[in-house]
Amino acid sequence: MASKALPLRTAIIGLSSTAVTSWASAAHLPAFLTSTGRSKFAITALLNSSVEAAQSAIKTYNLPHETKAYGSPADLAADPDIDVVICNTRVDKHYETILPSIQAGKDVYVEWPIASNASHINSLVDEARKSGSRVAVGLQRRWAPPVVKLREVLNEGKLGKVLSSDVRIYGGTMDREVLPVGLKYFAQREVGGNPVVISFGHVFDFVLSVLGELEPSSVHTKMQLQRPEIRIRDPQTKEIVGKMNSDVPDLLSLHGSLQTSSQTQKDATLSVLFRRGQPFPGTVPLAWTINCEKGEIRLVSPSGTALHVSENDEPVKIQIHHFDTDEIEDVSWEWSRTQEEIAVIGRTVMSNLYSFADTLGVGDGKEGNDGWVGLEDAARRAAQLEGFLEEWSKNWA
């Protein structure tokens, strides 16, 4: 596919001045505004729910006055002066807002989850194949520095092959049975964005990016909806303003065998437990061990499953227990100088966006090997997670 000149003429979907959540402004926008970001992306247009909403956001974020304001995905797709579209809307708006641009052959970066359901995801895959659109998906934690470091440690081979791995995850929401008004869709499976797909899904994805995929026939999952009644809280008044019944499980246990590889022993076992909400006091939200022939690696994330979202987060810690000497080694990792130019919440997203821009700039069309995850790769992960949920639904219903 032909390369595109940098900086890419870029349209952002969902950079709102009034949104309940601010992922676009907090995690994406800073990456575009650094000197490196400006060399790769030129914000040319915004697409919001209306032209007026887009104009308001242009003013709020002090974007150039010539930035175009769109309220229609079709109008954006028809603009010949847009190279790449970045989508940050709520998941149930992903499909309708990016489909026209994909059909028009524009390249797209869409946040995870890809879309609300398998039908929409498959449609996007089909349309991208037809048009040649290159689509990146925001599974950015595969390239979080601690995850990259774990891959480096295993690839060195000094610890021998992986024998088993265990992951314990707590979180997904701040509370085990309360949701803020703006996130009540976390308890509505039809929307497509919920703690299983988002919080568990991100961790599950970066764990498998290190260990390799599971043998499909070996996977067993057990899900449970422990707290079906959810209370809804107004974040401004802190008062409970309603109740609703959830149809999203809040406990997931998974066991399976990793595919045999040069770094993984035959039948090496992966065990994962996810529980929504707060852990027992003093228990870390994310603990991951990798048991190898000659040592064991432990990653601990004290501040959350997302690894790092705030400057106040306690750093992720990686240690290796060497069996031959019984010594424990602290393994350091670090942000790049470029990443350190912006707040922590946007650093891994920045790396994905820059890698995607560089790929578009050279036009080689590679997927997943240059610091970003392609649509078909991400669609396979989405189908895997949907399979877990569907199996649970049969028994729950």
Automatic annotation (TrEMBL):
Transmembrane portions of the chain: none
Q: Which residues form the Gal80p-like C-terminal domain?
A: 145-299
For this protein, the record's InterPro entries field holds: Gal80p-like_C (IPR055080), Gfo/Idh/MocA-like_OxRdtase_N (IPR000683), Gfo/Idh/MocA_oxidoreduct (IPR051317), NAD(P)-bd_dom_sf (IPR036291)
A GO molecular function held by the record:
nucleotide binding
Q: What residues does the Gfo/Idh/MocA-like oxidoreductase N-terminal domain cover?
A: 9-138
- Name assigned to this protein: Putative oxidoreductase
Q: Which organism is it from?
A: Melanomma pulvis-pyrius CBS 109.77
